[in-house]
Amino acid sequence: MGKSKGKSQKGKIILGIFAILFIVIFVLYKSTNKMKYKDIKLPDSELGINEEMITKEKDKNVTNILLLGVDDEENASDSMMVISMNKDKGNLKLTSIMRDSYIFFGDDKVNKINYAYHYGGPELSIKTVNENYDLDIRDYVKVDFDGLDNIIDGLGGIEMDITSEEVPLIKGLKKHGKQTLTGSQAVDYSRIRKVGTNDYGRTDRQRKVMQEILGKLSGMSVTQYPKLISSFSEYVETSISTTELLGMASKASGFKNSSMEELRIPIDGTHKDEYIDDIFYLKWEREENVKAIHNFIYGE
User: What is the SS3 assignment for 26-62?
Assistant: First the structure.
């Protein structure tokens, strides 16, 4: 990723896949009821949404959804992303939030943004992101890492170019270079933090894995989606109703702008590394990053 944002190399296929997946997930949800649905009944004030954001939401016609990749062993979100759908401009944008970003939860707690899930589940995750970045998120989609494992295995694995430094950190791998990774190996790869630029390298690997998944999906027949999704739908939890899913799918399928822009928060030059009680944190400057994410999502 560039300093703040860049076009996805496979952006041209994302919107079609996005729409198809939502439709198929809806059908599977109705027929198998494997996907978990969790309604969030909290008012906007308890989700950290202020009056100014409610007005902006209506003016800009943007819907933001929090995507959580959850590590069940740590009971924390290993990855946090905000997907933004602009229904007027007809585009999607993806914002990645660094998991080590410092957020104060208490003197005796782990003060990282990904631990919002640990202390209060998806509701606190939504509230924390809203309050710290002045956003208007009401819904989420959560995927367990076992789900990612199953998705990739269902696709027959993905091809990645592995460095010699990465090989020892991926179970069952014997050589470096281009090769097909299994689901568990791809998860190992996406979670490497000790090679390269720590968490920055890790988010780059996660993006490469996602691009490969999208590439494989684009080459599949629509008739193959139900079998694939039924194998991992039990690992998905969301607060989005089936009616809302259909509405989003309908909107996305009509989008003319076929690229997805990406942003990483905090942006370069607005953060520093710091250790507190021997725990690593990413201290970041709020004003600059709120401005950056608003410029990115709302076009201000």
Answer: HHHHHHHCCCEECCCCCCHHHHCCCHHHHHHHHHHCE
How far apart, in whole angstroms, are the C-alpha atoms of residue 94 and residue 104?
Answer: 25
Decide: 170 and 259 in contact? Cβ < 8 Å. no
Distances (CA, A) of 15 to 90, 148, 232, 248: 10, 20, 21, 11
For residue 160, give the 3-state DSSP assignment.
strand
Beta bridge partners of 162: 177
Per-residue pLDDT of the chain (300 residues; tens, 9 = 90+): 444 444 444 444 455 555 555 555 555 555 455 678 889 989 999 999 988 888 888 888 899 999 898 877 788 998 888 988 888 887 778 888 999 999 999 999 999 999 999 999 999 999 999 999 999 999 998 887 767 788 788 889 999 999 999 999 999 999 999 999 999 999 899 888 777 666 677 777 876 787 677 667 656 665 666 666 666 677 788 898 766 766 666 566 556 545 568 888 999 999 999 999 999 999 999 999 999 999 999 986
**Cα separation, 134 vs 298, whole angstroms:** 12
124 membership: H or E segment, kind and range = helix 116-133
Report the alpha-carbon distance of residue 293 to residue 46 in Å, rounded.
22
Question: For 174-234, where are the E strands, in sequence order?
Answer: 177-181
Name which CATH class applies to 5-145+235-298.
Answer: alpha beta
Per-residue tokens: 257: 């702008």
pTM, whole model, 2 decimals? Answer: 0.78
